[in-house]
Amino acid sequence: MQEGSLPRALPSINSLRQAQCRQDRSENSVWKRKMRCPVSIILASASPRRKQLLAEAGYKFRVVPPEIDESAFPATARSAVTSEGAGACECAKRLALAKAKDVAGEFPDCLVIGADTVVDFQGEIIGKAANEKEAEVIVRKLFSGPHKVITGVAIVRMADGVEIVESETTTIYPNVLTDKQIAEHIKGGTWRDKAGAYAIKEGGDAFIEQIEGSLTNVMGLPMELLGRMMGRFGR
């Protein structure tokens, strides 16, 4: 540097962030243009289990998590009691559709799949536990008797007004868990972000005595139902 010359100003953090945002928006716009064709599929879910199930079934898709406030659907965000047997199905279908439509608004030419899973225990709709204390209450309740796992599935394509919503129900007959098993399950943290505060693969035979219905439904995405729904589009 020559004597008397001023050092060149380094770019500010804000300017670097703004440049990155402009690049991200540009790349996203290019991707959106490429995706505007009727054969494109989007999974509107951040669930790794749903992503795995869809991939194992041979679907080619992109994951775009929805940005909706699930607290606006209190029956699926916490626990709620319904006087109607169809209440849990309607709650799951309503939130599945909301997730699909949230993403479909950005990608109108794509088939967007949304899903939501809840548990029905003797008319009480149980969603995800908010903390360890609530998770323990839910687990003790569910593993005291049979309960139903219900997943709502929605397929939306805005461009031609496609909007299909259905649900699948599986009945679970659980094993009675010991206090030690429950404590280990809660401590392990695998209950987080799961309807009913457990996933069927975690406990194996220790959790479940018998299942009536779709196994993949309990895992978060009923592939038999989804296959029938996608069959309407030649998939």
Pattern of helices and strands: HEHEHEHEEHEEHHEHH
Fraction of residues in β-strands: 15-25%
Quick one: how many beta strands? 8
Helix content: 25-40%
Distance between the termini: 66 Å
Main sheet summary = 8 strands, mixed
Explain the layout of strands and helices.
Elements: H1 13-35, E1 41-43, H2 48-56, E2 62-63, H3 74-77, E3 79-81, H4 87-104, E4 111-121, E5 124-126, H5 132-142, E6 147-157, E7 162-174, H6 179-188, H7 200-203, E8 208-212, H8 215-219, H9 223-230
Parallel strand pairs: 1-2, 1-4
Antiparallel strand pairs: 3-5, 4-5, 4-6, 6-7, 7-8
Descriptive report:
By secondary structure, the chain is α+β, with helices and mostly antiparallel strands. It has one domain: Maf protein, CATH 3.90.950. The protein is built from 9 helices and 8 strands. Strand 4 and strand 5 form a beta hairpin. The longest helix has 23 residues. It is elongated. The chain starts with 12 loop residues before the first helix and ends in a 5-residue tail after the last helix.
Key words describing this protein structure:
235 residues, alpha+beta, Maf protein, eight-stranded mixed β-sheet, 8 strands, disordered N terminus
Summarize the structure.
The chain is of the alpha+beta class and 235 residues long. The chain has one domain (37-233): Maf protein. The protein is built from nine helices and eight strands.
